[in-house]
Amino acid sequence: MEQGYGKNTESTRPATPGEQIILPISELPAEENVDFLETSFFRVDKSRKLPTPSEVRSKVVHNRSQTRRPDPVWFAEDKLVVKWGEYVTIAEGQVYWMIQNRLKEIPAPEIYGWRTEGNQVFLYLECIIGLQLEEKYNELSHEDKLEICGQIKMAKVALGRLRQEPDGKFLGSIGRQPLLDVICEDDNNLAGPFITIAAFHDWLNNRVLRRFPDPEAMIPLRKILPDNASIVFSHGDLHPKNILLSPTKLSKIVAIVDWHQSGWYPSYWERCKAEWGNLGDWASKYLPEALDSSYSEHSDELYNAFCMYTQLLGVL
């Protein structure tokens, strides 16, 4: 049975600009099934129902429901999209909830609720009409790209205001769950949560050593990873495909989507991940404009070490 959430509590009121935000983990909705009754989907009629998991699956064509990563399902009449499957997590839903309650300046879909059925999670999200930056990149002017970078930077600065509870530092997903970054995927060992950045770096290093047992060769690479970096909340996959632009004004971001890999990471992680796999002037010229404030440890040496770890781990 779904749990209903009504008005925001004082601890989840929207923050004022520039205000640091401490969101206790205990405030995050963690039920397996929940409706957010204060959202636009329920605002006119609180008895309105979200589609059931069975109704979601019934709209899937070509038997995609049997795959481990099924495509999202659209309900055009309700302006609703459902992200679902074995790899979808409540943690991602918690991030959308946090954004719409505390960081409204970040453009992201509104989340109306979620359901859990077996080993599948269903996130019910606002359907935002937008065009992927990846698809429209070559149509943009230099000025358009700079304007987009400015909006990404504002979103990153907003995320940077999020703080962990003073006595509860960790690296992990928002609710102290394991990290879900693709680089951290390991069928044998959960990726945290980790108490320190050094513990996270050691875990990465040990994963490489399981594949290539040569500790001496890894010493120089491990030393490059900065154990003294700060812990910040990161999107974790700021690829141009996850940045949606307005169809009527391509220089305006209407949504940053796919927060599956988001969480608390070392401060260098966001930019390294954003550069990783993004060739061309987006990575070399524009990302530094968007993410410089979050990357004080930036150096070619660190980025090269990051890329070497991904290669040694077999992450493409």
Q: Any chance you could write out the topology, listing elements then pairs?
A:
Layout: E1 3-5, E2 21-22, E3 34-36, H1 40-43, H2 53-58, E4 73-75, E5 80-85, H3 90-102, E6 111-117, E7 120-126, E8 131-132, H4 133-136, H5 142-160, E9 162-163, H6 197-211, H7 215-224, E10 231-234, E11 243-245, E12 253-256, E13 263-266, H8 269-275, H9 281-291, H10 300-312
Parallel strand pairs: 1-3, 2-9
Antiparallel strand pairs: 3-6, 4-5, 5-7, 6-7, 8-11, 10-13, 11-12
Index terms:
three-stranded antiparallel beta sheet; 10 helices; Aminoglycoside 3'-phosphotransferase, Chain: A, domain 2; globular; 316 residues
Outline of the structure:
The protein has 316 residues and is of the alpha+beta class.
Please report the number of helical segments.
10
Order of helices and strands: EEEHHEEHEEEHHEHHEEEEHHH
Which fold does the CATH topology of the largest domain refer to? Aminoglycoside 3'-phosphotransferase, Chain: A, domain 2
**CATH level-two architecture of the largest domain:** Alpha-Beta Complex
**How many structural domains can be distinguished in the coordinates?**
2
Strand line-up of the largest beta sheet = 1-3-6-7-5-4
Mean pLDDT: 91
Task: Let me know the number of strands.
Answer: 13
Structural class: alpha+beta
Q: What top-tier CATH class of the largest domain fits best?
A: Alpha Beta
> Span between N and C termini?
40 Å
Largest sheet features? 6 strands, mixed
Going by CATH, the homologous superfamily of the largest domain would be Aminoglycoside phosphotransferase (APH), C-terminal lobe
Looking at the structure, what is the overall shape?
globular
Q: Nearest-angstrom radius of gyration? A: 20 Å
| Strand proportion | 15-25%
**Unreliable parts:** 7-11
Q: Helicity, in percent? A: 25-40%
Pfam families: APH
Protein name: Aminoglycoside phosphotransferase domain-containing protein
Organism: Orbilia javanica
Domain Aminoglycoside phosphotransferase: 105-266
